[in-house]
Amino acid sequence: MNSTPLEDCYDKRTTLASRAIKDHQEGLEHFLMGKKEYFTSELIANVPVLTEIIKFQGGLQSLLDLNEDFSFEEDRFFNVSTKKEKEPLDSENKKLGKKSRQSRMPTDEEAKKYLIDTLFRKKS
Question: For bias kind Basic and acidic residues, which ranges apply (predicted)?
Fold first, then answer.
């Protein structure tokens, strides 16, 4: 059976977490003790698995944002407890034959614009 992209991401995240524990045991101890000051940019630059995790998480968040907006696949792996319920069609939409926003595939232009806006937006 073929796996979905979100399933692949879930598996990769699990693998990266296991590698981080194995390759940098000291970091796990600091993480569990809540010592944020331990995790400096110098440390991250010198521990390859940490750099890989940060890059992966950035890409994963973009993928999850796109999936939430356009419902490419059902998200059974991430944010399950906070997952929004799909908006049911109200009687007005049924009369007009409108489909909910989640069921419409985005155009290439919409997907590109969303990706650019999401990746390069300013942090508040």
Answer: 82-95
